[in-house]
Write a structure and sequence with these properties.
The protein has 226 residues and is α+β, with helices and mostly antiparallel strands. The protein contains 9 helices and 5 strands. The protein has a 5-stranded mixed β-sheet, with helices on both faces. Strand 3, helix 9 and strand 4 form a beta-alpha-beta unit. Helix 2 packs across helix 3 and helix 8 crosses helix 9. The chain is elongated and about 65 Å long.
């Protein structure tokens, strides 16, 4: 009974410290504890939080880990995975909504932040398209293709077809490099030029092609590649 009361007291104190000082008031493993409290109404989850952080190095590493990777930890069940994935989904939604407010020139940093959260930790390459209206605001973003660890197919015809279906006036191409190196390949450059050439004929502007890596990114526009 005394042990249970101590654990309840720990949770209450941790919540209060967080509310008083926000994220700066708690360590990363404590922030994980706060996230996992909903999934584990009883028991000491500090060891689990510390084990997760040790394995995945950072808070974001834990949040973006796959369900299979997370379930390997003793005591981690579906409820715990769901609690972590709610945080990941919430972060993506928050950044996506920020990226949609205002003209592209002012929101491009938010677009990049959103794509890093959505794609930076993926194990396979993914091609994502952000479609823009005449005011250069995002209409929607969609995953167009998923590939392997070092390749994803790019179909120019499908890209243009989808832009026309949405009535888009512009688009941003985004894909990730799971290797961690965002340097464009020859195939990346060729695919970009093919899409840009086809889009121009239909008065659709390709604003940029952004390659996302876990800790960095490359903009074709900034590099003078388009």
């Amino acid at each position: 009974m005394a042990e249970d009361q101590h654990r309840l007291g720990h949770r209450a104190r941790l919540r209060e410290r967080f509310l008083m000082g926000n994220v700066e008031a708690v360590a990363d493993y404590e922030l994980l504890e706060l996230v996992l409290f909903a999934a584990f109404p009883r028991g000491d989850i500090k060891p689990l939080a510390k084990d997760l952080l040790k394995a995945f190095k950072t808070f974001s590493g834990v949040i973006t880990a796959s369900e299979i990777e997370l379930l390997r930890f003793k005591g981690m069940g579906k409820a715990g995975v769901a609690a972590l994935k709610v945080v990941e989904a919430s972060a993506q939604k928050l950044l996506r909504e920020k990226a949609q407010i205002g003209p592209l020139q002012s929101t491009l940093p938010q677009v990049i932040d959103y794509c890093k959260v959505a794609m930076g930790s993926l194990k396979n390459e993914q091609l994502r398209l952000l479609f823009l209206d005449k005011r250069h605001q995002i209409i929607t973003d969609e995953v167009q293709q998923s590939g392997t660890v070092d390749h994803t197919p790019v179909y120019t015809r499908e890209v243009i077809k989808r832009a026309l279906e949405l009535g888009a006036s512009g688009l941003i191409i985004v894909h990730n490099h799971p290797s961690g190196d965002p340097t464009p390949s020859r195939a990346d450059i060729k695919a970009t030029k093919d899409i840009q050439s086809a889009a121009e004929k239909l008065n659709i502007q390709v604003h940029d092609h952004i390659i996302i890596a876990k800790d960095s990114h490359v903009s074709f526009r900034a590099k003078g590649l388009m």
